[in-house]
Amino acid sequence: MRSDPLTRMLAVFAIAAMVGSAAAASPSFGVTVSPFTGGYPVLTASAMLPVVTLESTEGPVVFAGRLDVSTPLDFSTLPSVGLAVTAAFTGNDMFQPYIGAGASLGWYGSAGARFALLTPTVLAGLRVPFDVTWAARVEVAAAPLVGGVSIGLGLEVSPW
Question: Which domains does the chain have, with CATH numbers?
Answer without folding.
Answer: 5-157 (2.40.160.20)
